[in-house]
Amino acid sequence: MAIVALFRGLATILWFAVILILGVVITRAAKKQQTKGIISFWFGVLVFAMVISVISAGIIFMEPNERGVVVSPYNFRAPEGYIKDALTPGLHWIVPGEMVERYSISRKTYTMSAGTSEGNIVGDDSIRARTKDGQEVFIDASIIFQVDSLKVTQLHIEWQDRYREELVRPTTRGIVRDVASRYGIEEIVSSQRTSLENAITEALSEKFIENNLILVDFVLRDIHFSEDYAVAVEQKQIAEQQAQQAKFVVESKKQEAEQARQVAQGVADAAVIAAQGQADARLIQAEAEAAALELINDVIQGKPDLLTYQYITKLGPDIDVMLLPNDSPFLFPLPNLDVPETTVQP
Predict the structure, then answer these.
(1) Which of these, 271, 69, 229, 80, lies nearest to 151 by C-alpha position?
(2) Which domain holds residue 78?
(3) For 113-150, what is each residue's pLDDT tens digit?
(4) Is the N or C terminus of the chain more exposed, i.e. has fewer CB atoms within 10 Å?
(5) Same domain, 97 and 154
(6) How far apart are CA 148 and CA 135, in angstroms?
(7) Would 291 be classed as within a structural domain?
(8) For residue 147, what are the contacts with CB-CB under 8 A and spacing of at least 6?
(9) Of 181, 208, 225, which one is at a domain's C-terminal end?
(10) Are 23 and 95 in the same domain?
C-alpha cells in the first residue's frame, strides 16, 4: 500500500513540475529569452511523469484477506472480458483502463432472528417452518461462511456482490424449512434437535460448494412456537409436573408403608423369638425339674423315713401341734411323739 501511495505522490509531484517548467518556458519565450535547454528538460520531465502516472495507475495492492477479479476491456488481454486467475495478496500491475473487483475471503456471519436488533434485517426475521405433524415453528439461525478463494472469479460471474441476499439468505431459509418438515415437533424440541442441526448443515454445505462458497458452521440459535402451542406445552408441562408430584407422594406412602411393615415384621419376629426362647427355657426347666423329681423319687424309694425327716425340718422348731381342716387328710403319717408322763403331786 505504501508503494502505491509513493508512486501516486511521485506522479503528482512530476505533473506539478511539468506545469511549473512549462510556465517558465512560456515566460522566457515571451521575453524572447533562450528556452531550448529548458524545453528539453521539460519534455524529459513530461515523459517521466507520464510513465510514473501509467505505472501508478496500474499498481494494485491486495490485502491478505482479499482476492481480486480483473475486468478488462482489452480483447488481447481478456477475450471473455475478465482475467481467469484472481489476484492474490501482494503487489500487482494491471493495464490502465482495467478494473479490479475486490472480494473478501474472511469469514462472514449472516443471522436471521426474531430479535429486532440481532439479525441482518431489522425486525422479526426468524425462519417460519412447519413440522411433519403440522405444527408451526420459528427458527433463529446464524450462518458462518466465506468465499472460496479458488473460485472467486466464478462467484463474480454468477453472483457478483449479490450472494449474501440472493444466495445465502434464500438458500438457508429454504433448506431449514425442508429439513424441519421431516421431523415432528416433539423431536425438534427434544431428542432430535442435534440431528436436525446436522442435517441442515450437511445440506447447506453441499449447496454452498455448488455456488463457490464455503460453509464454516450453521448455528441453530433458538426455536420458538406459536402462541397456542406454547400454551399447550406449558399446560402439558404443568400436568406432567403434577403427575410427577403425585407419583412422588405415592412412592413416599409406599416407602412409609413398607417401613411400617418392616418395623411390624421386626416386632413380630422379635416376639416370636422371645416366645420361642421362653418356651425353650420353660422346657429346659421342666426337664430339669422332672429329672430332679425322678432323682428324689429314687432316693425316697430306698429311704422312706427321709421324707418324714424333710417334713419335720420344714416345720418350725417350736411347733408341737398343727390344726388342719377336718376335711384335709394328712399328707404324711406323723411320727409317734413319745411324751413322757408327768406325775402331778396332789
Answers:
(1) 69
(2) 2-103
(3) 988 778 788 888 899 998 888 888 899 999 999 999 99
(4) C
(5) no
(6) 37
(7) no
(8) 67, 103, 104, 105, 155, 163, 212, 213, 214
(9) 225
(10) yes
Same domain, 130 and 220: yes
**245 lies in some domain:** no
Mean pLDDT confidence for 249-277: 78
Q: 3-state DSSP: the chain helix, strand, coil percent, rounded to 5?
A: 55, 15, 30
How far apart are alpha carbons 4 and 96 in whole angstroms?
A: 14
Contacts 24+ apart (CB under 8 A), 240-245: none
The answer to whether residues 213 and 106 touch, using CB atoms and an 8 Å cutoff, is no
Name the amino acid, one letter, at 228: D
The 10 Å Cβ neighbour count of residue 307 is 15
Alpha-carbon torsion (59, 60, 64, 67), positive or negative? negative
Beta carbons of 153 and 100 less than 8 angstroms apart? no
pLDDT, tens digit (0-9, with 9 covering 90-100), for 178-226: 999 999 888 887 778 889 999 999 999 999 999 999 999 999 998 888 7
Using alpha carbons, select from 83, 253, 251, 106 the residue that is nearest to residue 157: 83
Q: Are residues 116 and 142 in the same domain?
A: yes
User: What's the total number of domains in the chain?
Assistant: 2
pLDDT at 339: 45
Same domain, 114 and 219: yes
Return the residue matching grid coordinates 508503494: 3
Torsion of CA 201, 205, 211, 214, to 10 degrees: 110
Query: Domain with 152 in it: what CATH number?
Result: 3.30.479.30
Looking at the structure, do residues 94 and 20 belong to the same domain, yes or no? yes
Which of 46, 75, 103 lies at the terminal end of a domain, its last residue? 103
333 pLDDT above the threshold of 70: no
Q: If you search the block for the grid coordinates 503487489, which residue do you land on?
A: 91
Residues 119, 27 within the same domain: no
User: Collapsing DSSP states into helix, strand and coil, what is residue 325?
Assistant: coil
| Residues belonging to the chain | 346
CA-nearest of 89, 115, 112 to 102 is: 89
DSSP class of 159: T
Is residue 113 exposed (0-12), middle (13-18) or buried (19+ Cβ within 10 Å)? Answer: buried
Does residue 118 share a domain with residue 91? no
CA dist., res. 201 & res. 208, Å (int) = 10
